Amino acid sequence: MPAATTMAHVSKAKMLLYKQSQAIAFAEELKVLSVGAALLRGNRLVGLNAYLDNDGVLRTRGRLNSIDIAEDAIILAPGCRITNLIVRSFYEKFHHLAHETAINDIKASFYISRLRVLYKSAQEKRWVALFTCLTLRAVHFEFAHSLDTSSCIMCLSNFMALRGTPKEIFSDNGTNIRATKKAVREELKNIEHDKITIKFDGIKWRFNPPGAPHMGGAWERLSFNDEGLRNALMEAQFIINSRPLMFVSLDTEDDAALTQNHLLLGSANGYKPLPKEGMNLQRRWIETQRFGDRFWQRWIKEYAPVLTRRTKWFKKVPPITIGSIVVIVDELLPRNLWLKGRVIETMMAKDGQVRRVTIKTQHGVLERPATKIAVLDVGLEDGN
Fold first, then answer.
1. CA proximity to 358, closest of 378, 343, 370, 379
2. Distances in whole angstroms, Cα of residue 296 to Cα of each of 67, 156, 204, 278, 341
3. DSSP 8-class letter at 198
4. Can you list the positions of beta strands (E) in 109-265?
């Protein structure tokens, strides 16, 4: 009886595929690095601090301070089939949405030059047309390449070619479905009944009245039940919380972009690496503190400027108002100690923009420039 496939087997197989891809794309570089020599100036990998790991896989060094504590990225060539399959797998994993999130996830494990160009070349969106038999409650699915009338007609034609011509069609008032009926009728009027058009003749098409989705219960109820809907919502929630909070840099020296999941789960994908074997409790505490400090440094450098950014040079924005809840930016304070408070007074310039505010905090009343204030989107009602 053959042994069961384990995660170790899968991991080893992946490494073999990576090495095979690299052997084709980076043969000269592998030859140089395998003997301990340095890549010559001008080589395409010289700026990546490329090296061979213990398994002989080509990686790029530069993520030692990453808050994800991830391994160094594996270098892959953009024109390789294995690379294309990896990119497509991420594209499908995110259901053809959240492109920057997918790119951020790819970048966490792989360095692929011109990644955005490659990612944009993945497959296009597809839709599914659902046909339900009102007698047997059998279902039939047809792929649609778009939501326009031509795709709708082809879906109907494909269905009829496989299942036969229905006597009646019940549907909602979708504009593409209405247009399909009209197009079919015009086709029957203007063209002699041949083998292509004759099958549409004699079909009664009945539309539900607007605002009455319950009248399509036979097909509407084929959507999610409570359990399935919750699972779909949880998946959507995870995808949304994985989206980058700022622009995703493709520079190998830069860390993966911060996401909401970094705050909620500790990493973009929720993965929490196990502590290194033999690490004592004191060492673990030190590493935890370093992790927190590193995250705070990135928060100040990358995300805080987004909160405090003023766009007055490009377009007018509502000024800071009395009663706004704000955070006072102070790069000199330790992490997580920025003060929060409520604006009790503002000083407005001639151009209508607030330049200085007075803030009431738990440590007293402070005056700060508007450039050091981040307004929190919490909302106020009746000043409460």
1. 343
2. 10, 56, 65, 28, 20
3. G
4. 110-112, 127-132, 139-144, 168-171, 204-207
Amino acid at position 370, single letter: A
Residue ranges of the domains in the chain? 13-120, 127-226, 308-375
Cα separation values, 151 from 85, 188, 225, Å: 28, 18, 29
β-strand 110-112 against 73-76: which pairing, if any?
A: parallel
> Which fold does the domain 127-226 belong to in CATH?
Nucleotidyltransferase; domain 5 (3.30.420)
Task: Give the pTM.
Answer: 0.45
pLDDT digits (tens, 9 = 90+) for 172-198: 888 888 888 887 776 655 545 444 444
Q: Which residues in 225-247 are b (16+ Cβ under 10 Å) and which e?
A: eeeeeeeeeeeeebbebbbbeee
Long-range contacts (CB closer than 8 Å, 24 or more residues apart) made by 30-38: 30/58, 33/58
**Calpha distance 249→219 (Å, rounded):** 45
